[in-house]
User: Fold these one by one.
Assistant:
Number 1:
Amino acid sequence: AFYYPDPQSHLLEHILVDNWGAYASNFSSAITPCTNYVSQRGSTGLNSGRTTAAQWMRVLFHDFITANVSAGTGGIDASIGFETSREENKGSAFNDSFAFWAPYVNEYVPMADLVALGTVMSNNLCGSRLMPYQPGRIDATAAGHTTGVPAPETDLEETLLFFDRAGFNETDSIALTACGHTLGSVHHGGFPEVVDDSTVTPTNTNGGANFDSTRGIFDPLVVSEYLSSTGEKGGPLVTSFNVSSRSDLRLYESDGNATMQALLKQGDGFLDTCVDLFKKVVNTVPSHVTLKEEIQLMEVKPVNVTFGFDKDDKLILTGTIRILTPAGSRSPKTLEFSIAGKSYNLQSDPETGTSVFGRSGSEYGTLSYFSFSIPGSKARKETSFSVLGHSFSLQSETFIYPDTTMINGAIVNASIATSTSTECGNLKVTIAVPYKQQGTLAPKVQSQQITLNSKSVEKDGFKICSGIAELENVPTGLVSLKVFTDGKVADVLLVNGGAAGW
Ligand code: HEM
């Protein structure tokens, strides 16, 4: 199958862009609306007083703040998953978030990239600016050695030391804390020393006391309400009945409120400041990690493109083209698809989706989809096709045949179509599988080889080689198969999106 521009960028672009409607990634729905709590269903969730979009940012903060930038250790590496029993990481955010993210982990998407992505999504969907996103983080295999997360009772000096260790000066620490504390709440359930039980009600069962009057909107309100002592007055870490729990007050006042005043003056520019600071946080990684290029939005994106065989066992090339139309423009009803000097007129599918990309004001971009099925006689031996002047590469020499490549429980069946002159035994097939692991809710990816039988069948001039393998356990998410010819990857197939609904 073909993933543009590559499997990793495709998967992450899908989460970022395909927000709602047809082919949506289920990632966005967790924080739609932004007050949503995804970890409990129905009225239990609605009345929980918890906010998934906020939890995701708190997870980022706790994974990040134990970074020691001068030693090059820690930062965004998902080590927080191993550290949830530490007193400094109390609260439900960590396990809730990792449980939701776990099905999205696979060979191309480590948990650490999802920790970063969670905050990017919270910014993108909940009223902030679109945040740039670079993948390439590497998951820690154990808890980090460094401890020390600021808690409500931590004194100012130590709080600033923790931030400094992670590369943040006083001004940026104040601003980052205000940016984080524009979403969500402090909960009596977890922090009774900050919030008393008066907040616990049938419609707020965990007793969430909000940081500002809009707990689901990324806005500068936390700053203005703090400075004017209106609304939530900066929230429980400013106003707590327990003076020693007023950590935000101590921090904001540490420079005589100069930073908070400056943030207020910025107006909506506060959002740009937050994006810059969050960018620094998500990109704080251990020194052995090099982040990759930013994920680029694809206005024209082929998805699910693969060679296969039709009911008469003839080769076909199938897939769907996704077109993003910005708000205010009309999405196309037809589309020209060109291959081998011939053009095909595609009709749009009835179902469309929407995206924060292409957004203008309160209107979203529209995603429309155009399915295609091209006879193999036209596509075979071609090395590319094109749509709206964008060219996409292809090959049909050796491919994983999706119809008979599947996973049932822990059993994998793989089929490879290749030239009739190839020996099945000369093809190498590997599978990378995410499994549960001890000590963290983050799955761990392991690879193994699939041996192909020497027996084969023929279809439309191809030899089909097959093999079966048993996995050590049932996968927790998407598995990736690769076929190699002469030591080079000839084709990749992503199988079994599962709960993540890839
Ligand atoms: C002095 C530093 C900080 C302290 C002492 C602190 C402390 C806390 C506490 C006690 C909570 C309540 C958690 C709960 O009840 O579930 C909380 C919530 C939160 N914190 Fe902080 N925090 C600090 C800085 C930050 C920073 C820098 C960020 C973001 C980058 C951040 C993001 C959040 C978010 C989004 C929530 C809401 C979580 C929810 O609603 O579930 N915090 N913080």
Note: Residues 50-51, 54-55, 57-58, 61, 91, 93, 150-152, 159, 176-177, 180-181, 183-187, 190-191, 194, 237, 247, 251 surround protoporphyrin IX containing FE (CB under 6 Å).
Number 2:
Amino acid sequence: MQRFMITGGNRLSGTVKVSGSKNATLPIMAASLLLDGKCTIRGVPRLRDVAVMRELLIYLGASVVWEKDVMHIDTQGVGYQDVSEELMRRMRASNLVLGPLISRYKYARISYPGGCDIGSRPMNFHLKGLQTMGVSIKEKFGYITAEAKKLKGSEIYLDMPSVGATENLIMAAVLAKGTTVIRNAAREPEIVDLQNFLNCLGAQVKGAGTDTIKITGVNGLNGAEYTVIPDRIEAGTHMVAAAITRGDVLVTNVIPEHLEPVINKLREAGVYVEVKDDQVRVAMDKKPLAVDIKTMPYPGFPTDMQPQFMAFMTLAEGTSVISETIFENRYKHVMEFRRMGADIRLEGHTAVVRGVPGLSGACVEATDLRAGAALVLAAMAGENGTVLDQVEHIDRGYERLENKYNALGARIIRVHS
Ligand SMILES: CC(=O)N[C@H]1[C@@H](OP(=O)(O)OP(=O)(O)OC[C@H]2O[C@@H](n3ccc(=O)[nH]c3=O)[C@H](O)[C@@H]2O)O[C@H](CO)[C@@H](O)[C@@H]1O
Ligand SMILES: C=C(OP(=O)(O)O)C(=O)O
């Protein structure tokens, strides 16, 4: 187990560069399984989840060479294998191999994926969409078996704009016979990135970024090089870090358009935010005003920023109402914030956060990835020292977060126990 010892009370100042997007890299790596050849992905973040996806590809027979932020994947001659349950359980995004495997081999058997405990996260939309494409699905003893003679282009309507289901279905449709239309598709920037990557390989995908995506099946794909987009959630986390510590930070390598909901809420809270090309400067020198947040699919306020924003609101002037509409169990950080002196009342899917004058250091636990990041922010803004356990969760989605913040003036020590 690893923990952070965080000394609070330091303003962050300086420049921090955002790494490549986790949620874009993972589906792009999975999509490489559609190819019988080589591709190179640039801007790959050094994260635990990316390492797990790499292991998964290697387990399936691919060669994966990962140097700094460049990954060379060779899927020539990869034959079918059932995916090991141990690997599937290590993260939620392992489910993204289902679409490519069924598309390439017309057969896939996977166990249900694992991942952070933020909700039940079923796969019914993924499976219903595949069934529409002619795939027979059997679910037994925690395993999903998908089988088809051939995949046929179809009209699919998603009951909810699920990110993973949209990605799995795009990947399943790329080599299918005919045209697939996905309606009520998720519109996240990571889906646009997947479309752009697939089209570089020779796929015909159109409409990502809107709620209707059209995929015309092709016979095969060719190799390519691709650079993933910057991570908008990492960027948003740094922006809140600057604001909560009353600092002044330039966040570089960002696509500001992807951050509009976060930028708007920060400004509403009284934070100075200056946007220029691929950089955002965030400065704050007073107590924030309380603002309300409701998480929504993109372009709404991202659920992956809810815990970090809640950390900020614990110190606001007034009362903030935060509604989590995406994941039913994404409030585990509330208990941890309370240990630090926050005043938060939970009413179903709503958290009522009454700003307090200050937070104090405490022994807390990173219950999941974003909860962990949010606790780092709270601890940096708090008084005294905080001991944050289970920081392995944070390593799933941030490249050495402590190094980035220490370079800005924070005091965070990683301890291995
Ligand atoms: C690797 C990756 O990109 N992860 C992101 C992705 O997760 P993920 O793709 O798992 O999230 P989804 O968009 O699928 O989930 C949204 C909601 O739909 C529900 N649902 C989903 C699929 C399904 O078949 N049935 C069903 O009921 C989920 O339980 C959840 O309540 O989008 C989430 C929502 O923006 C983000 O928090 C995650 O960081
Ligand atoms: C919930 C997240 O990721 P995943 O879907 O991989 O669990 C996240 O990135 O905040």
Note: The pocket of phosphoenolpyruvate (ligand 2) is lined by residues 91-93, 115-116, 118, 304, 369-370, 397 (CB under 6 Å).
Number 3:
Amino acid sequence: MTAHEGNPAAQGGQEGWVEPRATAVLVLADGTVLEGFGLGAIAQAPGEVCFNTAMTGYQEILTDPSYAGQIITFTFPHIGNVGVNEEDTETVNAAASSGVRGIVLHAEVTQPSNWRAAKHLDAWLKARNIVGISGVDTRALTALIRENGMPNAVIAHDPAGDFDIEALKKEAAALPDMAGLDLVPLVAATQRYDWDETPWLWPRGYGKRESAAHRVVAIDYGVKRNILRLLAKAGCEVEVVPSTASAKDILALNPDGVFLSNGPGDPAATGEYAVPVIRELLDRKIPTFGICLGHQMLALAIGGQTMKMKQGHHGANHPVQDKTTGKVEIVSMNHGFAVDPATLPANATETHVSLFDGSNCGLALTDRPAFSVQHHPEASPGPQDSHYLFTRFVELMETEKAKKAA
Ligand SMILES: NC(=O)CC[C@H](N)C(=O)O
């Protein structure tokens, strides 16, 4: 158990010392068993394991609905040390689950030390039914994911340490691949709602949108709050509609622009019902902006293809180049699928590219007012370099309005 590495007692050299019993296990589909100490929900849960390299913002990560169906291992060892608070939640309904199944940590979670802390991470995980394990060699696990790709696994927590390892191995090996899974119904809204909250402004808390120049319909595939806040801040009146809304429902709301949200699962599986709607909206030349899953689905709607990545991109310091300006921005990422730029049709250009691996990070149509990015310009958590994309969307709506008026 790696939590005790460096502790002489853990070397087994001292008389009377007893190896602590594992109270949690992470069992990978290939049969690898990692032992550690349980935290969070006393339960067991299946998921795809991905690693996130962000050093801050674990609460936003754990509440990002795009992680539904996944177990997150943090490469940063000290997670939980600032507790959790009321404000930094990314699910729109603060009490709703983001669908994250589990959390894998190196160090044990300490008492929170931060003026905003309202709860200990352990209690918060329990309340949200997220299973946790600490004391894991997360560097070795990350190296394994880099080598072999993101594995399926079962994470289990039992204070009595009573695990049927063979049964867990079988369960992990039988889990379906993330490719082919539509997980949007697990996390997306089923009712329409308005959004007028703007970002957090110290010391006043969240603000309210003062004026709205543009009417935006946001299609919710698992949207993050800070995206809606930044749309409101950019002067948009935001109406959020369920992922199952038809083009007719959306057009009836008379939008100046349509926003395609982030979300979990395989875009190709989700696209089955979302893509025809997006296609129809594009044909009406409605200004469109997509983020992450929304980007992937815009690509699918114009005839492009997406593919599963080996280890994906999950972190808060990825360099991306905006090819339209040449500028490099440091961005937040969370995706396990990517658009294959070779499949983009002639009426689309690649606008952004990852400087880590050259993968596609953005596109724009040349014959219709639509663009999208793979990364997370809402920066929650993460750097704010890409906030300009919300302005770009507003400018696109202004240009289209001016064209119509002329
Ligand atoms: N953040 C997102 O929207 C993720 C999109 C998609 N589920 C992926 O993993 O690639």
Note: Residues 66, 262-265, 267, 292-293, 334-337 surround glutamine (CB under 6 Å).
